[in-house]
């Protein structure tokens, strides 16, 4: 109920703060000293979401501070965050459950780079790369990626250096989401 009093950014930050508080409570009270696997949408897990620029109502603005960003600050980098990406597939809209196709991402995007590996599914351990070289330089430069695989009518791909947002990244070929 309280979330309805906020604009979209404030509402997301309110929700993500509560989620981060809940995860921290689970870590300290329910499972102290244990490893925890947390599965959530990329927008909620990324370590630096407030630096992502998004288009809202036709204007560029910084995104919200996510649960992942709050936990990254609280846990001081002890977490391992994996972003999930797909290059194409089918899904449904959240509001209407109307199905639609996700078209392949453009050349030079994170998804297209991962497809160039020749493998159907790819995992990249970004934590093993602290300095750029000829093979990993793309990790340290801004790159387009679809945060949730949505087409441009739903969310615009965001330009960012991937290494600042995740510890690892996975591309799943032809992922099907929804009912």
Automatic annotation (TrEMBL):
Gene3D superfamilies: EreA-like (biosynthetic domain). CDD domains: Ere-like. SUPFAM superfamilies: EreA/ChaN-like. It comes from the Bacteria. GO terms for biological process: response to antibiotic. InterPro entries: Emycin_Estase, Hydrolase/PRTase-associated. It holds the Pfam family Erythro_esteras. This is Erythromycin esterase. It comes from Aneurinibacillus aneurinilyticus ATCC 12856.
């Amino acid at each position: 109920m309280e979330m309805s009093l906020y604009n979209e950014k404030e509402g997301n930050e309110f929700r993500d703060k509560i989620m981060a508080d809940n995860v921290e409570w689970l870590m300290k009270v329910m499972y102290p000293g244990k490893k925890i696997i947390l599965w959530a949408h990329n927008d909620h897990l990324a370590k630096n979401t407030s630096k992502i620029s998004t288009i809202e109502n036709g204007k560029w603005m910084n995104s919200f501070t996510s649960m992942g960003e709050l936990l990254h600050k609280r846990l001081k980098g002890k977490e391992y965050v994996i972003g999930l990406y797909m290059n194409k597939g089918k899904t449904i809209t959240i509001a209407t459950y109307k199905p639609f196709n996700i078209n392949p991402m453009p050349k030079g995007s994170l998804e297209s780079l991962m497809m160039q590996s020749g493998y159907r599914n790819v995992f990249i351990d970004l934590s093993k790369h602290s300095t750029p070289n000829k093979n990993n330089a793309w990790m340290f430069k801004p790159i387009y990626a679809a945060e949730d695989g949505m087409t441009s009518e739903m969310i615009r791909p965001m330009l960012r250096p991937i290494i600042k947002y995740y510890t690892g990244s996975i591309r799943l070929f032809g992922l099907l989401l929804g009912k």
